[in-house]
From TrEMBL:
Record EC number: 2.6.1.1
Keywords carried by this UniProt record: Aminotransferase, Pyridoxal phosphate, Transferase
UniProt KW Protease keyword: no
Name of the protein in question: Aspartate aminotransferase
Species, as recorded: Coptotermes formosanus
Length: 357
């Protein structure tokens, strides 16, 4: 993003740029600002001192550190992931110490949308004190998000069965282009009084993939602010044992952006542009398939949201499109929409058409 490049030039030309280690849980400014992005500046949890952030090695680090804390200190044993999910989730939670890794249904191949009945049934049967990992927005890999009504129903079940929400916010802003709108489900859960963890990532929404900037945001229940000190000291030990100190450079960039209203505006503008471009590609791909007369219904391409879509091709068709057209898709025909451009979209549509017919 252009404002990131400008900040980098500024850092590069600053002879006093500090190359010291950060402390175990990262930069103070970052830890103050990142939770505001996800919970909202006026969040009562933040104002009451019962929510705080710990800088991590991106979203993956936040998931891993949160998982280890839940197992080591709160003795959780069972975690539920969506089926399908980001393929690293089972590994992260497994190495984090969870012995019992289960899944809840998420994708309905017939409707090419969320299998909500299946989801509710599965988490409704989860043993009490299970951890439920829920992707906040722009679900990877299906591109299908939950509606507010669905979040409400999930919250009802989680409350009734004493389940712990672990929110994976790897794509905040990438679903609708609006950081606040995408964060709504977390804010709703906090408002309902849930204690929860959020794994935040700035990889996608600020284009800082390699810099590894993330945050484990912890929200405690009402009246439990005094527990923050103990939790922080245990998180410090986990961070020390994993990598000692998180990375500084990306956190400097993100902290500057989050502390400067003008840079925040620039960031929001870039996010909107990014999301509009991806939406334009979705529309164009669907139109192109209609124009070609490709059999099947392709409405899911524009109904799905964020960077990914499940096209709904069979494994046989995926093999054909790869070998014949050299169009490479993720497993279960996941397409990364941000890889489509006006230069290659006609070729991709043509390849899908040929494969399906
Ligand atoms: N969660 C999900 C759902 C993801 O797709 C990813 C990255 N692909 C991550 C977490 C972690 O991303 P990072 O470590 O780059 O923040």
């Amino acid at each position: 993003m252009p404002f990131v490049k400008e900040l980098e030039q500024e850092f590069a030309s600053d002879p006093k740029f500090n190359h010291e280690y950060l402390w175990f849980l990262g930069m103070d400014t970052f830890n103050k600002r990142a939770p505001e992005v996800i919970l909202g500046k006026g969040s009562s949890a933040l104002l009451e001192g019962r929510a705080f952030g710990a800088q991590t090695v991106s979203g993956t680090g936040a998931l891993r550190m949160g998982a280890e804390f839940l197992v080591r200190h709160l003795h959780y044993n069972t975690v539920y992931l969506s089926a399908p999910t980001w393929d690293n989730h089972p590994l992260v939670f497994g190495y984090g110490g969870f012995k019992d890794i289960r899944s809840y249904r998420y994708w309905n191949p017939a409707s090419k949308s969320v299998d909500f009945d299946g989801l509710l049934e599965d988490i409704g049967k989860a043993p009490e004190n299970s951890v439920i990992v829920l992707q906040l927005a722009a679900h990877n890999p299906t591109g299908c998000d939950l509606t507010q009504e669905q979040w409400t129903e999930i919250a009802n079940v989680m409350e009734k069965r004493n389940l712990f929400p672990f929110i994976d916010a790897a794509y905040q802003g990438v679903a609708t282009g609006d950081l606040d709108r995408d964060a709504q489900p977390v804010r709703y859960l906090v408002q309902r009084g849930f204690e929860l963890f959020v794994a935040q990532s700035f990889s996608k929404n600020m284009g800082l993939y390699g810099e590894r900037v993330g945050c484990l945001t912890v929200v405690l229940g009402k009246g439990r602010a005094q527990d923050a000190t103990n939790i922080i000291s245990q998180l410090k030990l986990i961070a020390r044992a994993l990598y000692a100190n998180p990375a500084k450079y990306g956190a400097e960039i993100v902290s500057r952006v989050l502390s400067d209203p003008a840079l925040m505006e620039e960031w929001k503008k870039c996010l909107t542009e990014m999301v509009h471009r991806i939406r334009a590609m979705r529309t164009r791909l669907k139109e192109k398939l209609h124009l070609l007369g490709t059999p099947g219904n392709w409405d899911h391409i524009t109904k799905q949201i964020g960077m990914f879509s499940y096209l709904g091709l069979t494994s046989c068709q995926m093999e054909y499109i790869r070998v014949t057209h050299h169009v490479h898709l993720g497993s279960a025909s996941r397409i990364n929409m941000s890889g489509l451009t006006y230069m290659n979209i006609d070729r991709v549509a043509g390849a899908i058409h040929d494969t399906v017919t």
